[in-house]
Amino acid sequence: MPYDVLQGLSESPDLEFEYADTDKWAAELSELYSYTEGPEFALNRKCFEEEFQTQVSDKKWTELDEAQHRAHTMRLLDGLEVIAREKRLKVARAILYMAQGTFAECSSEAEVQHWMRYNIFLLLDVGTFTALLELLNMEIDNSAACSSAVRKPAISLADSTDLRVLLNIMYLMVETIQQEDPADRPEWKIIRETFRAELGSPLFNNEPISVMLFGMVTKFCSGHAPHFPMKKVLLLLWKSILFTLGGFEQLQSIKVRKREDLGLPPLPEDCIRVIRSMRAASPPASASDLIEQQQKRARREHKVALIKQDNLDAFNEKDPYKADDSREDEDDSDDNDNSIEAESFPLERDEVMPPPIPHPSSERVSFPKGLPWAPKVRYCSVRPDNNAAFVMTFEIALLKILLAAAPTSKAKTDSINILADVLPEEMPTTVLQSMKLGVDVNRHKEIIVKAISAILLLLLKHFKLNHIYQFEYMAQHLVFANCIPLILKFFNQNIMSYITAKNGISVLDFPHCVVHELPELTAESLEAGDNNQFCWRNLFSCINLLRILNKLTKWKHSRTMMLVVFKSAPILKRALKVKQAMMQLYVLKLLKVQTKYLGRQWRKSNMKTMSAIYQKVRHRLNDDWAYGNDLDARPWDFQAEECALRANIERFNSRRYDKSHSNPDFLPVDNCLQSVLGQRVDLPEDFQMNYDLWLEREVFSKPISWEELLQ
């Protein structure tokens, strides 16, 4: 659909998008692989069959019993410990084929997914994941591979083969095991919970797997390991965090439980559920739309004047707003044919014509029954959690990758290369191959943006729930690393085109490509893309980035002024053209916080947006958001606010985590009587010499009320 059509007020369709932690399982599996990796599916199968036929020659994998499956899997696991790299890679590919569902013996995608679950739970049960982590550590520390990659002028898919195979298996295991199925065996549920606990524990090289993956991100961005397949690293990092810490539903449950433990009143609503029930609003009018509306309004005024002069009685008998008046319907079609417009922006009415007479049978104008949110009062107190465990790593590295993957970024000589795991060894020689690679590269970047936005949002939400200063520490690092202008730069594009982009070739997606025969690709089919109304991952990324921006700027006047200084209002207003309720809500929140700084003229010219903010965003009873008379808006307080926050964060970190320079005033007090009496205390020599005198003066000569002491 062309953009000029989508830009119209009434033609823009509602996007049937349901926000969740992840997309459907099949989509999350397919995004692991680039289209350039397609030939490796057959190579994995070949490696498995060569290993399998040497042990079991007369049967297929799907024909064996569970004991035989386990025995062969153990033999493959032993093969991962051989010294020869080529032999080890061959065995790893055979294991990857198992994790891919032994697809050559399956006739449908559902059957592939069934065998994936069975094989992956079997692999985990025999200890495959631990062995893979040891191999991954070896590859991370492989200085020869890093030196070779640094010296190469151009890095391709072949430079990351070993890493990609290992990361593919590990991602498939994490992604599959975290998917709960009612038909799962009881022992599988136990395996899942055990695996969840192990992933979040420092069992692998004395650190959780997420810390090791963050280390890979930092090493890649520093330029010491340009061959790391960063898309796969980020996807595995995202799914590991999601599996160990929990998604949005788990966050809500933890929040409810913590409020109960602290004696706080229950939450008035579940934000995600409220947002899912909201309807999208028609976007604000563009400049061309406003000019056209003014012209139509002038024509209506002229008609009314003529009617009043010629035949006032006839005008009184005929209501120009009635649906059977075809002339007025034609003139008003662009302004009033969308009931959501009337519902969402009641203040944007034609002031020249008299108000319409209500008709019981008419559904032309429908008013909302009430605001979707319960109002709140903001309190400034913080109640710390004394049992929080603090882990903080490398946001700057993530933002560097996000900048390189953003569609608005231009290629620079000093920017990092995020295409190492998508570019083939030999560059395309035909137009069709070039088009296919172009789709693959764009898809690759979109998946990276999706993973990074999800990682940052999950960490911010979990840190905020764990301890407010952990959240503030991460948020301030992001702000100092220019996260706010980076996100605004991301949205300073044709956002509707980004959300409706068709960078995908469905027939090449896994597991479709390994079950069905591939049709012949043509330039026309690549240009046409799929028939989806929007791209799920791109809309998901946009909402995540808007939520991150909201979390960074909420109740922070200095950061709100950054939105104003970087002229975010027109950028955000363009994002309202996407008719999806959740995305519009977070855009309106960002506009609301800066409304008081934009001036009276802006508010007067954007009454439709102001009306949408009033109807869709939660209101604080003590927040004078629509007027510019807030005392907290003084410019000389902005720098002091950030400095004071940073001082509080550093004081918290020093008291909590700096063991070498611990302040004795902040050390925990030992209240155990036996422990205190059992401590050895070195007494000075003069005290030991006069010990008898001390006993007489301090103990024997003083009366002791034993009853009070015992009480």
UniProtKB/TrEMBL annotation:
Q: Does the keyword Cytoplasm apply?
A: yes
Query: What keywords does the record list, in alphabetical order?
Result: Cytoplasm, Phosphoprotein
Keyword match Phosphoprotein: yes
Q: Where is the Far11/STRP N-terminal domain?
A: 12-311
The record's InterPro entries line, in alphabetical order, gives: Far11/STRP, Far11/STRP_C, Far11/STRP_N
Which residue stretches belong to region Disordered? 316-355
**Domain Far11/STRP C-terminal spans what residues?**
284-691
Subcellular location per UniProt equals:
Cytoplasm
Q: Which regions are flagged for Basic and acidic residues bias?
A: 316-325
A Pfam family this chain is assigned to: N1221
Q: Which domain of life is it from?
A: Eukaryota
GO terms in the biological process aspect are: cytoskeleton organization
- Could you give one GO CC term from the UniProt record? cytosol
Q: Compositional bias (Acidic residues) at which positions?
A: 326-340
What's the stated role of this polypeptide? Plays a role in the regulation of cell morphology and cytoskeletal organization. Required in the cortical actin filament dynamics and cell shape. Part of the striatin-interacting phosphatase and kinase (STRIPAK) complexes. STRIPAK complexes have critical roles in protein (de)phosphorylation and are regulators of multiple signaling pathways including Hippo, MAPK, nuclear receptor and cytoskeleton remodeling. Different types of STRIPAK complexes are involved in a variety of biological processes such as cell growth, differentiation, apoptosis, metabolism and immune regulation.
**Annotated family:** Belongs to the STRIP family.
This protein is called what?
A: Striatin-interacting protein 1-like
Q: Native species of this protein?
A: Scophthalmus maximus (Turbot)
